[in-house]
Amino acid sequence: MKSYNLSDEDGTVLVQTARKIATEFVKNGRILELDSDARSKLSFESGIFVTLDIKDDLRGCIGFPLPRKIAEALPEAAIAAATQDPRFSPVKPSELEKITFEVTVLTPPVEIIVDDPLQMPSKIIVGRDGLMVMQGNHSGLLLPQVPVEYGWNEEEFLSHTCQKAGLPQECWKEKQTRVFSFEGIIFKEDLPNGKVIRKKL
């Protein structure tokens, strides 16, 4: 199963597995072993992020931008999104029924090469691309759904990704900054613990 041709059924497995693993860890402090069926379905390699929302407010988001075996990366990302996002306190058991789980499977990042950095926005499409910015020891990533949710244009998307990396907003205009784009396949519960749907941007 490749990340690029995931079925809706695959998406359901991803999201339900993320919820099951996060729930077990939040309630009992245990890391659930995947059964052999889930392990075989999640044996492909890809970047992956797990996002938790309460209503439309972010409650946690952690993941891995570079391809890793999903059977290992998904449990790590699910537990980290629930308990280790530095922007939030760990999820309490009482919150689990209010949270919607979302899993984004990433295509490998590809560096955007331009002769003039000012051409960069024209190489990005909001609603398709996610971005990763790297400069020195700094790096930051924003998923494809973020600029859509905030109504940003391409320049604003670049600026906010720089900010996420702990860099000045205009850093994407500097020669030493490397910008990568990737695409994401997004699956999300329509309600907490509800039906898993493929999210269109």
Account of the protein in words:
With 201 residues, the protein is of the alpha+beta class. It has two domains: 120 residues, Glycoprotein, Type 4 Pilin; 74 residues, 2-Layer Sandwich (Dna Ligase, domain 1). It is built from five helices and eight strands, in the order ααββαββββααββ. Strands 1, 2, 3, 4, 5, 6, 7 and 8 form an eight-stranded antiparallel beta sheet that branches. Helix 1 crosses helix 3.
In short:
With 201 residues, the chain is α+β, with helices and mostly antiparallel strands. It has helices spanning 8-28, 36-41, 70-83, 145-150, 154-164, and strands spanning 45-54, 57-69, 99-106, 110-111, 129-135, 138-142, 178-189, 196-198.
Q: Give the CA-based shape.
A: globular
Distance between the termini: 23 Å
What portion of the residues fall into strands of 2 or more residues? 25-35%
Q: Do you know the CATH architecture of the largest domain?
A: 2-Layer Sandwich
Poorly predicted regions are none
Output the CATH homologous superfamily of the largest domain.
Answer: Hypothetical protein ph0010, domain 1
Attribute tags:
single chain, 201 residues, alpha+beta, Glycoprotein, Type 4 Pilin, Dna Ligase, domain 1, 5 helices
Layout of helices and strands, plus pairs?
Blueprint: H1 8-28, H2 36-41, E1 45-54, E2 57-69, H3 70-83, E3 99-106, E4 110-111, E5 129-135, E6 138-142, H4 145-150, H5 154-164, E7 178-189, E8 196-198
Antiparallel strand pairs: 1-2, 1-3, 3-7, 4-7, 5-6, 5-7, 7-8
Helix pairs in contact: 1-3
